[in-house]
Design goal:
Five copies of one chain form a homopentamer. Chain A is an alpha/beta fold. Helices cover 42% and strands 16% of the residues of chain A. Chain A has a four-stranded parallel sheet with strand order 2-1-3-4, sandwiched between helices. In chain A, strand 1, helix 1 and strand 2 form a beta-alpha-beta unit. In chain A, helix 1 packs across helix 4 and helix 2 runs parallel beside helix 3. Chain A starts with 10 loop residues before the first strand and ends in a 20-residue tail after the last helix. Chains in contact: A-B, A-E, B-C, C-D, D-E.
C-alpha cells in the first residue's frame, strides 16, 4: 500500500448532486469511483449537494476553482413537464459555460424522469448512467486511451451501447 | 444575546424581487430568513426591487459584487403567454450567467402564473416556494449538511416533496 | 434653478432605438425622461439609433462603457413572423449579456408587432411601454423606493397593471 | 483626390461570407461599400470567406481584434430544414457574443433560403439586403445621423420598407 | 523532403471526437489531413476522444489553449430523439463559445443519426462530411484562397454541393 505517499498532492474529483432528484445519484457515482484503481491513493472525491439541477453549474465551478477538482461529475434529474425540459436546457447551458470558464471537464449526468415509466428500469438507468460517467471521469484523468480505443463505437450510459453502425 | 459581537463582519444574503409579480415574494423570503438561526446576528438581509424578472440577473450580480452578498434569492413570476415563457427562459439564462461570473449561488425562484388556476393554491405556491428557497439559501451558507442529507430525496419547493423513487 | 451647478458631473441615461420599429419609441422615452425631476440638471440623456433590434445590445454596452451611461433604455419592435420571434430571443439574450458584462441595468423595451391588430391600440402600447420603462430607469437611479413600494403589485408596462392576486 | 494622404490610418470595414450560401453576398456588400463616399480614401474593406454561417462569428471577431476592423458585415444563408433554423440560431448567438466581447458592431445579414420560392425574387433579397446592410455599416461609422433620422420608420433590408404605423 | 526543418515549430491541427458516435469520424478526419500537402512537415495532428458531443467544447478549448492547436475539427453524432436535438443545440453553443473565448476556429462536424435511414448512405455522410471539414481546416490555415474562390457557391459537406442559385 502506498499510504505513506500521503504527502503527494492527490488529484481531486468532484461529485455534485441535488435534493430534487428521486435517486441518490451521487452515491452511485461515489461508489463507482471507490472501485477505480488508486482510489484514496492517487485521487480523492469531494462531494456537495445543491437544491436542484439549475444549481449544479456554479457549484461545479466552485469545486474546480475553490476546491481544486480536476474534473467534476454533475448529476441531476429533470422532471417530465415542459417547463422541466426548459429548465434542464438552462442547467445544461450553465454546465457548458462552467466548463469553458474553467477549461475543465464537467460531465453532465442527467436522467430525465420520463425516460422510463417503469420504476425498476428507471432505477437501473440512474445507477448505470451515474456509475458509467463516474468511470468516464476517472478515465479522462488517468486512462484517456480507454476513451480513444472506443471512439465511434456507439458507447452509451444508462442503456445498452448502440454499437457502431452495421452495414448489411 | 450576542449583540455585542456587532463588530464582526456579518454575512449578507440578498433578496431581489419584482414589481411585475402578483405576490410579494420578497416579503415571504425575508420572513423565512428572519426565522433562521442567527438572523441579524451572523447574517443580514439586503433587498432590492426591479421592474420585471428580466432585470433580476444584473441586480443579483450587483448585490454580490457591489454589496457583498454571499448568496442571493431572486424571485419572479413569469406570466402565462408564450412570449412570457420565452422571457422567463432569457431571465433564467441571465441568472445562470450571473452565478458563473460571480462564482456565487443565486437561487432562482420562479412561480409561473399558470401553475394553478386556483388563486388560493397559487398563493400557497408563492409562499411555500419563496420561503423554502430562502431556507435553502441559509442552509447553503451555514448548514450544508442539511442539503447533503436530503440528496436524491425528491425534495420540492412550492408543492409537496415527490420523495425518492419507490419500487414495488 | 441649479443651472450654475453645471460643473458637477451629471448622470447619463442612454436611449437606444431602431430604424426597424414602426413607431418612434426613442422619442417617447426621451419625452418621459424630460418630465422627470432633475432633467438636464442632475441627469442628461444620450441617444443612438441602430438598424434593428439585434444591434441594440452592443450599442447599449458602448453607451455604458464608452459614453458613461449609468443605465440604458433599449427599445425595439420584433415583427410577427416565427423568424422574428427567434431574432427577438437572440436580441434579448444579447441585452441580458450586455448587462452582466457591464454590471449595469439595460431595460429591454420590446413591443411585438402582433400584440394588437388595432393600430391605435398598438400605438398606445408603444407609447405607454416606452414611457413607463423610461420612468423605471429614472426610478432605479434616483428613487429606488418607488420600485420597492410596488413589489409584487402586478405592475405592467404597455397595458393596465394586473394588480396583486386577489383572493375570493 | 486625396491619395497622397495614404499615410493616415484608414478605417477598416470587414466583410465575411460563406461558401455555403448560394449567392455571392460578400461581392454585393463590397460593391455597395465601393459606392460609399471615401471608399479607399477614408476607409478600406477587408474580406474573408469561411465554410458556413456558424464559422462567421469567430472570423468576425478576428477581423476586429486581429485585423483592426471598426465594424463587420457578416453574411450567410441558412437553409430551409428545421436543423438549419437551429444552426442559424446558434450562429446568430455567436455573432451577438462576438459583438459584446469586442464592443464592436457586427451586422448579421442572413437570407433564409426559404424567404422566397422564386429564384429571381430570392436573388433580389440577397442583393438588396447585403447592400443595404453594407450601407448601414458605412452610416454607423461615418454618418450616424442617417440612422437617427430614420428612427421608428419601419426601415427594412431585403424587402420594401414597412414604413411607420399608419393610423386610420 | 523538408524533414531537416524539424526544428521549426509545426502548426498543430486538433481532432476531437466521441465514443458516442456510431462511426469513427476522427479516423476519417485524420485520414484526410494525412493527404493534405505538408502533413507531418508543416503541420501535425493532435487527437482526443471524449464521451459524448457535449464534452467536445471544453476539449477543443484545451486543444487550443493547452496543446497549441491553431484550429480544431470537432466531430460528433447527435441521436434522433427530441432530447438529442436539444443536447446537440447545447453542444453547438458550447463549441461556438469556445471559438469566441479562444479567437480560434473550431469546425463543428455533426452528423445527425436521422439524416438517413439507409446505413450505407449514413456512412457516406459520416465519411464525406468528416473529410471535407478536415480539408476546410487545412484550407483555413494554409490556403484561404480556396475558400474565397468558392464564396456563395452553395458548397456542402456530407451531401452533394447545392451550387449557386440558378435563374431560369
Amino acid at each position: 500500500m502506498a499510504k505513506h505517499k500521503k504527502s503527494a498532492k492527490k488529484v481531486r474529483i468532484g461529485v455534485v448532486d441535488t435534493m430534487f432528484a428521486r435517486y441518490d445519484m451521487g452515491a452511485a457515482a461515489r461508489f463507482e469511483l471507490s472501485q477505480c484503481p488508486g482510489y484514496d491513493e492517487k485521487f480523492t472525491v469531494i462531494s456537495q449537494t445543491v437544491p436542484g439541477f439549475k444549481d449544479l453549474a456554479v457549484a461545479a465551478k466552485n469545486l474546480i476553482e475553490r476546491d481544486g477538482c480536476s474534473i467534476v461529475v454533475a448529476l441531476g434529474m429533470p422532471g417530465s413537464a415542459p417547463i422541466d425540459k426548459q429548465c434542464a436546457h438552462e442547467a445544461a447551458l450553465g454546465i457548458m459555460q462552467a466548463q469553458l470558464l474553467t477549461s475543465t471537464p464537467i460531465l453532465e449526468v442527467f436522467v430525465h424522469e420520463d425516460e422510463s415509466s417503469d420504476p425498476e428500469e428507471l432505477v437501473s438507468v440512474f445507477e448505470n448512467r451515474s456509475r458509467k460517467h463516474a468511470r468516464n471521469a476517472y478515465w479522462m484523468l488517468f486512462e484517456p486511451e480507454q476513451l480513444s480505443q472506443r471512439a465511434g463505437q456507439g458507447i452509451r450510459q444508462g442503456f445498452d451501447d448502440a454499437g457502431p453502425l452495421s452495414l448489411p
